[in-house]
Amino acid sequence: MLINNWYVAAAASEVRRDKPLKVRMLACDFVLFRDDKDKAVCLSDVCCHRGASLGRGEMNGCNVVCPYHGWEFAGDGRCTLIPAMGSEVTIPKRVRVDAYPTQEKYGWVWVFLGDLPESQRPRIPDLFPEYDDPVGWHRIPYGFEAKTNWMRFEENSLDTAHTQFVHRQFGAKRTPKLENFPLEESEWGARVTRRKPAPKPDQKSGEMAKMLSEERLNTSVALEFSLVGLCHRIQPTFKEGMTQINFTARTPVDRKLSRAIGWQARNYLKEPQFDAERMAGIQLAVVEDLSVVEDLKPPITPAKLSDEFLTETDSMEMAFRKRCFKWAAQGYEIDLDEYERRSQTEMLVIPSPARREDPKNWVHKTVPLKPASKESRD
Ligand code: FES
Ligand SMILES: [Fe+2]
Question: In this structure, are 20 and 77 located in the same domain?
């Protein structure tokens, strides 16, 4: 799992002023709430007194109150009140928890889990501009968890070849050959458009079946991912002028559990009465994917590309892996074995930007990271 990246913590509507929200990401716990300007705040969830979960506490104005002894923490992570000591004591600077940068985009709260200063942080990509065009596009939200490693999970979405075999409504087992086009690569992402054989009309149901009743040869699918923000968009064009976008962000919860949050936007059948049918289609596809992906071996994507037999049609998955490996090589990968061993007796947190300015005055230590490396993982 990689630090110094943006991850979606929650839908913006779940983050409130009156109630803390506990969220797990990168095998660490966080608490989210809103300050007096309605800005989303994300703190390390573990109280630096004796380890209770702030997310199980309550709000007092803009401060989160620990449920164990009532210590209060402000949006910048500083402790502002130790009730048992009285309000007259000066609270040392060290009594604080990490506070992480947040940004709201596409109706979600993204959190920067790392310690890079603002000037060095990557930008959340503009992968879903249609979000701001509610007339041209009708959107529905979705979200689900998968008992699978985040890389295995993301690779499943970048894989066009699997749809022919895994998905009943849009697969075409009889004609699985894909037309491959070169990837357009950027530093932290890649994009490709592929033509895949269209499913038979009788594989579709409901209103979609009526709209796609004539025999079609191909569906064109535009696919793009960004490791920054760990998100992707998949845009099939079923026939001229009829297209939809699935924009999804992934969040590693821990080594073998991941979360997805997404929007499906469509430019056809835009009335809400068709949402249930679209949602049923998404749910079916998720169940079909998870039936395969939750059972992959090894459960964690292998450390080298040559540990599996990858082909040309796996080019997006390879592009994704290479970028993950490159991110890790900067010294940004959590050493999970060491983390799990040490965290039995030590509270370890993702470093926040304030630690760069003041590395000493903290109660909790930071998660161990694998060293930066130049070793090839081809
Ligand atoms: S553990 Fe939080 S106030 Fe004591
Ligand atoms: Fe799939």
Answer: yes
Domain for residue 124, yes or no? Answer: no
Is 345 in the same domain as 311?
no
For residue 194, the CA-to-ligand 1 centroid distance in Å is 54
**Phi then psi for 351, rounded to 5 degrees?**
-65, 140
Q: Which ligand is in closest contact with the Cα of 71? A: 1
pLDDT by residue for the chain (378 residues), tens digit each?
A: 999 999 999 999 999 999 999 999 999 999 999 999 999 999 999 999 999 999 999 999 999 999 999 999 999 999 999 999 998 999 999 999 999 999 999 999 999 999 999 999 999 999 999 999 999 999 999 999 999 999 999 999 999 889 888 988 776 666 777 777 889 999 999 999 988 777 777 777 777 777 777 767 678 899 999 999 999 999 999 888 899 999 999 999 999 999 999 999 999 999 999 999 999 999 999 999 999 999 999 999 999 999 999 998 899 999 999 999 999 999 999 999 999 999 999 999 999 999 999 999 999 999 999 999 988 788
In a shared domain, residues 97 and 183: no
**Nearest ligand, measured from the Cα of 57:** 1
Q: Residue 60 Cα, ligand 1 centroid: separation in angstroms? A: 15
- Read off the tokens for 235: 């845009």
Number of H helices, E strands in the chain: 7, 20
Could you give the C-alpha distances from 98 to 10, 37, 275, in angstroms and in order?
18, 20, 40
Q: What six digits make up the tokens of 194?
A: 């592929």
Check if 46 has its Cβ closer than 6 Å to any atom of ligand 1.
no
Q: What ligand has the least distance to the C-alpha of 171? A: 2
Domains of the chain: total: 2
Which residues are within 8 A (CB) of 267 and not within 5 positions of it... i.e. 6 or more apart? Answer: 136, 137, 138, 241, 242, 243, 244
CA nearest ligand 1 atom 3, residue: 69
Q: What is the CATH number of the domain that holds 142?
A: 3.90.380.10
Using a CB cutoff of 5 Å, list residues around ligand 2, an ion.
289
By C-alpha distance, which of 153, 197, 158 is closest to 292? 153
Instruction: Measure 54 CA to ligand 1 centroid, in angstroms.
Output: 8
User: Would 156 be classed as within a structural domain?
Assistant: yes
State which residues form the domain around 302: 129-323
